[in-house]
Amino acid sequence: MSEFEPKIVAFVCNWCTYAGADLTGTSRIKYAPNVRIVRFPCTGRIDFMLLLKAFSQGADGIIVSGCHPNDCHYTSGNFHARRRWMAFRNLAEFMGIEVERIQFSWVSAAEGAKWADLVNSTVNRVRELGPYDAYRQMAASSWQ
Amino acid sequence: MEALQKSAREALENHKAKVIIGYSEGSGGRMRPIFVQSPAEAEKLTWNDRCTQNLAVYIAKPEVQKLGKPALVAPLPVLRAVLQLASENQIKEGDLLVLALSDGRVTELSQFSEMEEFVAKTPTHLASKDQEAIERLEKMTPQERWQYWQSELTRCFKCYACRAACPMCYCSRCTVECNQPQWIPVPAHPLGNWEWHLMRAMHLAGRCVSCGACGDACPLDIPIHLLTMKVEADIHREFGSQAGMKVQSEHALSSFKVQDKENFII
Amino acid sequence: MQKRSIRRAQINVLLEKLLSLHQVIYAPQKLGNQVDFAPLRDLQDLTLDHIQTVRSAKAALFPPVEELLRYQRAGVETELQDRDLTNLAEQVLFGTRPCDAAAIAPLSAVFTTDDQDAIFARRLERTTVISVSCERSDGDCFCTSVGVGPGDSRGSDLLLTRLQDDEYLAEILTAKGEALLQLAPELFGPEPAESKEAHLAKVQKRFDWEALHDKLAGAFDHPFWLRTALACLGCGACAYVCPVCSCFDIQDEGSQKKGRRLRSWDSCGLALFTLHASGHNPRSIQSQRWRQRMMHKFSYMPDQLQQLGCVGCGRCSRACPADMNLIEQVENFLFA
Fold first, then answer.
1. Of A68, B35, B103, C166, which has the highest C-beta tally within 10 A?
2. Do A91 and B142 lie within an 8 Å CB cutoff?
3. So what's the pLDDT on residue B181?
C-alpha cells in the first residue's frame, strides 16, 4: 500500500478554482502532484457523468470545485450545481459508490493555500482508502 | 367500475374527449391499456390493483395524438404525471381530460387547478414495499449496496422498457442515443448498464412521480424504480419540492435557494 | 435415434459429471420470483417445474454483448486481431423446452445463410442441447400454432420427457446426444415401455401460420397496424426475450489508437433502430415498427430463409409491459 499513489481528477471552474490553483503555483506553495485538473467554464457545466467516467478510467479520487456561493461568474451556476451534487451524491451512495472519494469544494481565485490544502487532504484520504479497484474492475469486466 | 364506465361513456357522448385511455383486463391476468373511441366500448374499462402502468406515457405518442383529445383514466400517479408534464410545457390546459380515481369514485377534471387540488388532497407516500426496500438498502454497508446493485444491474439487457414505460421519458432523443461521441456505452455490459441506470435516475431527479411503472415494466424484475424513488425522496426532504404537484412550480434541479444544504462541501 | 430411460437423480449425476469436465451448463434456475436461464453453479438451484423461463437460451449462442475483434494502431497501419475462437468453452443447454430447441434452426439460418458467422458457428458446434418436454403449458404458449410441439425433438441432442414420478424417457437424437450417453452409459436404463405422448402438455392450436403468412404478404398498408399498435410502448422487451430475434448493433469501444468492436442486441421495436444519419426515419412511428416485427417473423423469414421466425414460446406476451399478446394480435389480424 505504501507504493500506492492515488490518481485524483479535479473538475474545476475557470473563474475561481482554476485561477486559485494558478495562484497556488505562482505563490510557490508545494502540494501533492497527484491531481489532474480539468477546466470547465462553470461548475454548472460539470455533468455528473464526468465523475463516473473518471472512476471508470482509473481515478481513485475526484475533486469538484468552483466559486463560492454568490461569487459565480454566471451568477447562479454554482447554486444549480450544488443541488445536483446533493442529488448525485445521495444516489451514488445509495448505489454503493464510495462517495468519500469525491470531494466537493469552493475555492476562490484568492485561495491558493486552500487549493493546496484541499488537494493534500483529498490525496491523504484517498491514499488511506486505497485504489478504487471495485469500480475499475467493474469497468474492466466490461472491456475483457 | 360502473362509475368509471359511465363517466367515460358520457365524456365520449358529450364530445368532451375523442378517446378514453384506460385499463382493461388483458391476457394471463395482466392488465392492458385500451383506447376507447366509442361509448359502447366503455364497458371494457376497469380498474384494480394490477393497473400499474402509467397511462400518461401515451400522451406524447404521435399515433395516439392523432385520435384527438384524450381522457385519461387516472389513479394518482397518472394524475401527477399529467401535472408534471404540464409543468414541463409538454401539455397545455385543455389538451386533455382526466378521469381521476380515488376510493372507488370517479372525478372528471379538465382544469389544471382542479387537478392540483385533487392531488393536494391525496396522500403521496410511497407504497410500503418500496419504502421498506429503500430502507433495507440504506441500512446496508456501502459494500453490500455496491454488491446488490452490481448483481441486479448486471442482469439488465437494455431493452429500455423502463424508459418506454416512463411518462417523463419523453425526449425524442435520449442521452443513450447521443453517439458523437457515444456518451453512455450501448452494449449491455456491466459499465454500460451501470451508467445507463444511474443516468436515468439522475435525469428523472425532481421529475419522477414515483409511480413505479419502470420497475413493473422490467421483464427481468430489476427494482430500478427504487433508484428514481430514492432520488425523489431525497429531493423532497432536502428542497421541499415534489414532482407532479403543481403546474407553476420551480423544478428542483433548475432552481435553488441560497441557503440550500452544503454540509458536504468544504 | 435410440430411446433409453433415466431417473431424475441420475440426471443430476450426469450434470455433475459435465460440470466436472468444465462444461458451462445453462439451466433454468429460480431468481427471485422468476425462473431464468443462467450458468449453473450448484445443482440445488436447478428447477424443472416451471412452464417457461423469462429469457430464452438464445444468449448462450448469441450473447447480448460479444467482442468481434480488437484493433490497434501501429504506425500508419491498423492491426486487426480477430476474436480467438479456440478458447470458447464447451457448453450444455439444459432444460430448454422443445420450442427453444426448435428456435436454434431459425437463429442459425440468420447467422449462417450466405455468410458463415464464425463465432456463432463455433459456439453452436460446441453446444449440446438437452431439452425437457413440456408437461404443462399456459395461455401464452402457442407452439402448436407454428408447427412446434411440446414434445418435439428438433434442435435437441437429447430430449427428456417425464413419464412418471422421477422416471424420464431419454431420446438420444444426434451424435452429440450419443456422446452424452457414452459419457456415462451406466446412468441410462433400457427403453421404457410407455410412449411419451400421454405425458405431454396439451397446447391448443390457436391459428394457422400459413394463412397468416399468406395474408401478411398483402398487408403492408393494412390499417390494422395503426389500430393495434396503439398500446405498444416501443421497447425491446419482446425481442430480447425472444429465442429467434437476432438483430444486433455494432459498436466500437476504445480510442483511435486501440479498442474493440462489439456486437450487441438491438431491436426493431426501438426508434433508433432505423434512424438514418440524415435524421430521416423510414419507420417513423411505432405501428410501423410493430408491423416490422410481425412481418419479419411470419413473412420475410419464411420467404427468405425458409424458416418461421417464431416458435410459439409465448415469452413476448409474458414480457410485454403493455400486454401486446401475440396470439391475440395474430387472431385479430386474421379476422381484420
1. B35
2. no
3. 82
Nearest CB to B198: which of A90, A95, A142? A95
pLDDT one-digit tens code per residue, A26-64: 999 999 999 999 999 999 999 999 999 999 999 999 999
- Can you tell me the distance from the alpha carbon of A44 to that of B188, in angstroms, rounded to the nearest whole number? 30
Average pLDDT, chain C: 94
Domain range for residue A18?
A: 8-142
How many CB pairs below 8 A link B and C? 115
**Which pLDDT does position A90 carry in this prediction?**
96
Tens-place pLDDT, residues B169-205? 999 889 998 888 889 999 999 999 999 999 999 999 9
- What's the domain count of chain A? 1
Nearest to B157 among C231, C240, C317 (CB): C240
Question: Per the domain annotation, does A58 fall within a domain?
Answer: yes
pLDDT at A144 over 70: no
A134 in contact with B, Cβ within 8 Å: yes
Kindly report the CATH number assigned to the domain that includes residue A87: 3.40.50
SS3 (DSSP) at C63:
coil
* A2 located within any domain: no
Residues of C in contact with B220 (CB under 8 A): 34, 36, 54-55
Task: Supply angle C-alpha B192, C294, C215, rounded to 5.
Answer: 170
C78 touches chain B (CB under 8 A): no
Closest residue in A to B193 (Cα–Cα): A142
Determine if the peptide bond prior to B181 is cis (ω within 30°): yes
Is C51 near chain B, with CB under 8 Å? no
Cell numbers at residue B110, please? 379538465
Q: What is the DSSP string of C307-320?
A: S-S-----HHHHH-
Which residues fall within 8 angstroms of residue B126, CB to CB, at 6 or more apart? B134, B210, B229, B233
Lowest average pLDDT, out of B121-130, B211-220, C147-156, goes to B121-130
Question: Which residue ranges of chain C lie beneath pLDDT 50?
Answer: none
Q: Which residues of C touch B67 (CB under 8 A)?
A: 230
Residue A3 in domain: no
Nearest CA in chain B to C286: B63
- The answer as to whether A47 is a domain residue is yes
C286 contacts in chain B (CB < 8 Å): 61, 63
Output the pLDDT for position A2: 62
